[in-house]
Write a structure and sequence with these properties.
Layout (H helix, E strand, L loop, with lengths): L17 H10 L2 H13 L5 H8 L3 H14 L5 H14 L8 H10 L1 H14 L5 H12 L5 H14 L12 H13 L5 H24 L9 H13 L3 H15 L4 H14 L4 H7 L5 H6 L7 H12 L2
Helix pairs in contact: 2-4, 3-4, 7-9, 8-10, 9-10, 11-12, 11-13, 12-14, 13-14
Length: 315
């Protein structure tokens, strides 16, 4: 090797960690590797348009590469995510239109997504249809959930899936997509956050079940409208004991569980800052008979009542 010449890097040399190289090679995404080198060289300065011009790529291609780098944890690319999340809140939970060519290209060029499809198929025990694959790609590409988080979400949906008789039910990819919107809005972009969020969901599920029992509903599932009522009460900070008081007052006044009537009671308490049983009993207890007399009704004269009884008896 004595005939070979070597040159040491200059003072502005760019260093790439071995971990980053492994992730880039594993992704199989050449654009992502190229954009990553550009980001390191420019220290993250510049715009998408400048990067596209320097690399001879389109703006969309650079943006897609940056999303891929974000999923790999090599860069933080939050601004587009926040903008996309805001747009979805305004337009509703709908994925963008993907062509068959988009999906075919991703399955061919993106190793991470290709492996994700295989893992999801194993978890669900079926081959994904073209529509299923498109929805899964939307979760991966549009919502920006990393592959490991998506797989965690799929497994959680499988655990939660139940038929009306309580038997296990394999969730549809459409169901998983709806859950993915909730995870994205909650900022679930790592396994640690996923575990934390699942604990939050389980606590909420338990509280919702307790309120259902307090309302004497039994084991049937709540309708979507009923669930929205319960969710709003939980958001306000009410527990099952407070809900039971509101249910009792609702039945006494309407003869049955009237959701809108009960919701007015809960909102009235919330406006007064009354959430616990003690707070409700102190701040919104119903007046007793003696309290009612004190509020303007004279207490009956016992002697006078006896006199009237004697007069009536002589008639």
């Amino acid at each position: 090797m004595s005939d070979m010449k070597f040159s040491l890097p200059g003072p502005d040399a760019v260093t790439v960690s071995g971990q980053a190289i492994d992730k880039l090679v594993g992704s199989g995404d050449g654009d992502a590797a190229l954009v990553y080198l550009y980001i390191l060289r420019t220290q993250g300065a510049g715009t998408l348009e400048q990067a596209a011009g320097a690399l001879g790529r389109t703006r969309d291609a650079v943006s897609a590469a940056m999303s891929c780098l974000n999923k790999m944890g090599l860069i933080t690319y939050d601004a587009p995510r926040r903008a996309a999340a805001q747009a979805r809140l305004e337009q509703g939970d709908e994925l963008p239109e993907y062509t068959a060519a988009d999906i075919e290209r991703c399955m061919r060029d993106n190793l991470a997504f290709r492996e994700l499809v295989g893992e999801v198929e194993k978890a669900l025990g079926k081959v994904l249809s073209s529509d299923d694959t498109t929805r899964l790609f939307g979760i991966y590409d549009n919502l920006g959930l990393p592959p490991e988080v998506i797989l965690h979400l799929v497994n959680y949906c499988i655990v939660c899936g139940r038929n009306r008789d309580g038997t296990p039910r394999t969730p549809t990819v459409r169901y998983i997509e709806k859950a993915a919107y909730t995870w994205e809005r909650a900022g679930v972009f790592s396994l640690d956050r996923a575990e934390e969020f699942i604990k939050e969901l389980e606590g909420r599920r338990s509280a919702s079940s307790a309120i259902r029992s307090a309302l004497k509903i039994g084991q049937r599932e709540l309708s979507p409208t009923e669930q929205r009522y319960v969710d709003s009460w939980l958001d306000m900070g009410f527990g099952p004991e407070s809900a039971e008081i509101a249910y009792d007052r609702t039945v006494l006044n309407t003869g049955k569980l009237t959701w809108s009537y009960m919701d007015k009671i809960m909102n009235n308490w919330h406006g007064k800052g009354l959430h616990t049983v003690d707070e409700i009993n102190r701040g919104d207890s119903k007046p007793t008979r003696s309290q009612a007399f004190q509020k303007g009704h004279a207490a009956p004269n016992t002697e006078e009542l006896r006199r009237m009884e004697r007069l009536l008896g002589n008639l």
